[in-house]
Each structure stands twice: as C-alpha cells, then as structure tokens.
Amino acid sequence: MSTRVLVVDDTSIFRRIVSESLSGIPGVEVVGTAANGKLALARLASLQPDLMTLDIEMPEMNGLAVLDAMRENGLIQKTSVIMLSSLTVKGGELTIRALEAGAFDFVTKPEGGSQEENLAQIRNGLRPMIQALERRREIRSILNAKPPIPGSTPKLPHAVHPGPVMATPASPVGRARSRTASPIVLIGVSTGGPTALAKVVPALPQMIGGPVFIVQHMPPLFTGALAQRLDTLSGLPVKEAQNGEIAQTNCVYLAPGGRQMKLNPGPHGEIVICINDDPPENACRPSVDYLFRSVALHFPGRSIAAILTGMGNDGTEGVRMLKRSGSFNIAQDEASCVVFGMPREAILAGVIDTVVPLDRIAATIVRAIAEVRS
C-alpha cells in the first residue's frame, strides 16, 4: 500500500529535507509541496494525499489554522497530519494544541548537524509513523469493504479483539500489602497520547486516593507543555515530575521528556521520585518499562496500570513484572486507539486483566482502586 504525501513548510530548505527524507522510505511518494497554509488547503483538494507533513509556524495561515479548516471540512478523516515542530517551549505548546486538534503525531526539526544527519533524523522519525498509518488505513479499508456474508466474521490483519482477558492471578502477598498502603496509578502511552490523556486524566476523581504517574513518549520541553495543558483540564493537579520530590496523594506526575523516571521507597514509606539520565529502553526515554519495573520491585501489590495507545511494545515487560507483584493491568481497546501497538503487545503477552475503550479507562481505574482497598 503506497502512501501519497504533501509536504508543507514555509522554508524551502525544510521542504527539500523532508521531501528527500520521505523519498528514502519504500512505498512513499511525495506528490507535492506547499509554502503556506492557504496553498496547502488548495493542494489538499486537488492532490488528495494520504498524509501531510505540516509546519506549525508559517505566515498567512499557520499549521493550527490549517488543522481547524481541515476538521471543519471533514478533511482530517481523509488526510492524516504529522507536525514538524521546533524544539522550543513555544513549539511544545503549539504541538500539544495541534495534537488535540487532530494531528496524528509529530517529529522535531533538526537543530544543526550535517545534511545527511538531518535527513536521517527526520526519516527515522517519520518511518514508523507512516508504517502505523498504513496499518490503520489497511484496517479501515477492510472495515469499509462490502458487508460480509451473513454468519461470517471479517478477519482483521493481526487484530486483537477485546473481551474478557484473564491474566495470571494477582499475588496473594501483593493483595495483602495493597490493603495497608495507598494505591499507585500508572499510565503508559505514546502516539495519540495527549488526546487520550486529555480524556482520561480529567475523568479521574479529585480524591482518587493515591498518586498518578504517567510516561508519555515525548522529547524535552514538550512534556512540560502537556502537563500544563492537563492541569487546566483536570480537577487533579498535574505537573512535570522533579527529581527527589515526595509524591503526594491525589496528584498527577508526568515523566520529563528525554529523561527516565522511577519510584523509590523513602525511609518512612513515602514514594520518592527519581529523575535521571539512564539509557533509553525500547528506544524510549522516558520508558514505560523503566517506571513500571521500579514499582513492581519496590511497591508490590499497590499498582493499577494502564497501557494506552502507542507504537511499539514499551510497557509489556513492565506490566509483566507488575502482574507478578499483584498489579491490576488495563489495556485500551483497538477501536479507540490511534495506534494499537503498545496495548496489543501487552494483551498478547497475557498480562492484561481487562481491555476497555478509552472512555472507560478512568472508570475502570477507579473500580480497580476500590477493589484493591476492599
């Protein structure tokens, strides 16, 4: 399945770099370019690309305005959008807004480096996103095909269908400990995360009874903007975690972009947040596995973990360890995922207790907390 791409950027050098990066990905065809948002909308209508790479800050009509126009005209359902974002505080804030407006994902623009290095950086960022989009298009084309013969069931490629999921029973030791300490809520998410978190976090009660820790795959500066955005939406305070701070009940902590986050026990039983520069895991920093493993080791039987939309398999080994220590594990279902990668791998590993749509994640977490305390 080929992917037709429109490249939109107000600078000719980035249009050329992105176009050359895309031309090196098999099955990808650059069908046109545009130097501003108005031209982009005009060429969307004539070229009908599968994907548009979109700069945020442009004259005449910026990327956010383009997304708004696409959403109003129903074009966002036909053409996926990947943002090209600058690695700045302002770039992070604008990118979070773009993701909420319907952009599929984003890549950061290179800063310095040789032409070859810049090409490789953008190509390596775009390739897995395009592969995920191609899989999504394939599934949609099957679902939109002619109705099957009555009595038959269409088979989706590599699909995992939700339903009762029975994983290894929680450890009795973990269950016993869970009744004597506050619960720890863990969330791991990647592609599609900002939009998913904007639905899940505000739906959590203000008196949830424990701290909430989130790993969202993002570079530095972007997670700070995401934390601020979630804080405005949620009754729970949301902040970017800091090294050495004591986790507070009824507070949400987001792992800083580009760094690892783990939890250690304090001398009086408190939860101490550790932020460091340990190596990436699963090519991710922050890594879901890294956080989840620390909770399995130091706080057995206290966690409720949720794996949400995202590419790859980060989090699978972490929920495996959590399950052995008595955790209750939740996965988002395929229908509500932007990318059914991370949840799918955890489900196939047999370490998920229940699979639910995005709009039921928060309620499932709350019910699990109530059962842990009972």
Strand content: 15-25%
Give the proportion of residues in helices: 25-40%
The unreliable regions are 151-179
Report the end-to-end length measured between terminal Cα atoms: 51 Å
- What would you give as the CATH superfamily of the largest domain? Methylesterase CheB, C-terminal domain
- The overall pLDDT average reads 89
- SSE order: EHEHEHEHEHHEHEHEEEEHEHEHEH
Instruction: Please tell me how large the radius of gyration is.
Output: 21 Å
What class do helices, strands and sheet pairing give?
Answer: alpha/beta
CATH class of the largest domain: Alpha Beta
Q: Helix count, per DSSP?
A: 12
Count of spatially separate domains: 2
Instruction: Work out the number of β strands.
Output: 14
Concise overview:
The chain is an alpha/beta fold. It has twelve helices and 14 strands. About 8% of the residues have low confidence.
Describe the structure.
- By secondary structure, the chain is α/β, with parallel strands linked by helices.
- The protein has two domains: 3-142, Response regulator (Rossmann fold), CATH 3.40.50.2300; 172-373, 3-Layer(aba) Sandwich (Rossmann fold).
- It has twelve helices and 14 strands.
- It has a seven-stranded parallel β-sheet with strand order 8-9-7-6-12-13-14, sandwiched between helices. It has a five-stranded parallel β-sheet with strand order 2-1-3-4-5, sandwiched between helices. It has a two-stranded antiparallel ribbon with strand order 10-11.
- Helix 3 (63-72) links the parallel strand 3 (51-55) and strand 4.
- The longest helix is centred in the middle third of the chain and has 29 residues, at 115-143.
- It is globular.
